[in-house]
Amino acid sequence: WGKTGHRATGAIAEQYLNKKARKAIAQLLDGESLALVSTYADDIKSDTLYRAYGPQHYVNVPFDKTYDTHPHSEKGDIIQAIDHCIATLKSDTATKEEKAFQLRLLVHFIGDLHQPLHTGISEDKGGNDFQVRWYRDGTNLHRVWDSQMIESYGMSYSELAMNMPQLSKKERKTMASGTHRDWLEDSRIVVKDIYANTTVGQKLGYRYMYDYFDVLKGQLQKGGVRLAALLNEVLG
Ligand code: ADE
Ligand code: ZN
Ligand code: ZN
């Protein structure tokens, strides 16, 4: 996601933290919000020190395979990155600085795991090489989903977070069940549907928003609800 998508994910998660997790997070982040730190992993991307983190924002799996039956990338991927974030946060020996760093990354990676094009195929680099038009402008499918649909909706991240469908406690529990490996397969169902309904060079606009913006919002909501559940389990 772009900044708004990540911040909305963080803001949604804030609503569902338990007391203990909220306190542990406030301590690790020196009072900064999850929404604020959610974009940190992108902010450091251009720094050569953190080059190796690039492939950790996504995972590519052929549509006819699953993550566990496909050889994992040696450069790392979003699933391995999330494993590492969780292990560091649970560790008895990691320093506060290491935990704070991995927490910032975790907030971001759980967001990206729910951007369907971050769980796409390597052939077109997760839609980065899938050229389309967004209204009159030339762009690619990845960017449409990262930011252009969200921008055209015209809401701030906090407005987006506040305008999600209401969920009962039971619905949230169902939504957050499983692990990040299950959440990946869930996102892959969405990306397969997107590929089944989008062609190279297609002009996307009002109709695409009508067909897919609720899907996008649902992905943001799942990201926030699942991030909160994971943080409650790891830090709560
Ligand atoms: N960003 C850069 N390369 C990517 C890929 N292969 N899949 C998803 N997102 C990407
Ligand atoms: Zn992206
Ligand atoms: Zn990212």
What is this structure, in a nutshell?
The chain is built from 11 helices and 3 strands, in the order ααααααββααααβα. The chain is mainly α and 236 residues long. A 3-stranded mixed β-sheet has the order 2-1-3.
The value of Rg in angstroms is 17 Å
The fourth-level CATH homologous superfamily is P1 Nuclease
Strand content: under 5%
Number of helices: 11
Total number of beta strands: 3
Could you describe the 3D structure shown?
- With 236 residues, this protein is mostly helical.
- It has a single domain, classed as P1 Nuclease (Orthogonal Bundle).
- The protein is built from 11 helices and 3 strands, in the order ααααααββααααβα.
- The radius of gyration is 17 Å and the shape is globular.
- The mean pLDDT is 97.
- The site of one zinc ion (ZN) has 5 residues, from α4 and α6.
Keywords:
mainly alpha; P1 Nuclease; 3 strands; binds zinc ion; 3-stranded mixed β-sheet; single chain; 236 residues; binds adenine
